[in-house]
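Everyone, carefully examine this protein record:
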Amino acid sequence: MCIIWHIMVWVAAKWAIARKRESLIHMDLQFELGEPDAPKGHALVYFNDVSTGSCFASYIVLLPITVDVSKYVPPFLMNQVGEIGPGDMSAFAFPPAPEEVEDSEFLKNLAETRHDDLIFGGEYTASDVTSAMMKVNDVVQAYLELYEESSGVGIHDQNTAISEKSNFQINDIVYSMMSESDRLSELTKLVGRMRYAIESDEESLVVETEADLNAISTYFSEIFQMPVLIKWACKEGKRASGIADLYLKRCYHLSLEEYEDLGRVEEQIKSLDD
């Protein structure tokens, strides 16, 4: 199953690159289900073979999130997809060449059940795989254009907005699944990242890291005094950095129930905080 997934990603990536290289070919799409002025972002497309009249279909997907496909391609295929970057796979069809299906009625029932758009792509020669893939590619291009026109936003712009929102949600989910020791390790990394962001004057990184600190803080009990730690971690200066480090040590001693060490650290905090 894993090998099939790698192959699927590789093929889709290759045709995403090909789509990127080509100029857009305008074509009018024939919707049999769905509305051309309000595409759903996922569609079944089918063709009839000129020789046999048989029905062949593929599935179009416009991804609502940015995908860095290189993470999912095995090393031995990386040289084949080296040009692809995040966002290049925002629109693709799979299989890249249509596969034979029962008939158009079967696809109509399937599309209704799945709430997909259904598009008739016309006639083509099933035996000419290269030509078939290009036809599918043209439909993907046209479908993407319709989607962007109807939504008033480019798919890449939408990806960026959703991606920024999703990053916080994903981190929050990850934090909820961590053990306390893992959360403390992550907290240490975040405090270190915040110090770096402040010292290098990287405002965007400061904002991002503060959001992560606030997210992970909700998974610690009140005795860890996370709001105070975050307050000092987000301040400039060596004194603030020193106090933040002491509060971090305090968290570790609390977690490990090292109460003698905890008492000494709290005395140090008091002497610096006065």
Summary: Residues 178-273 form one domain. Residues 1-7, 17-25, 159-166 have pLDDT under 50 and may be disordered.
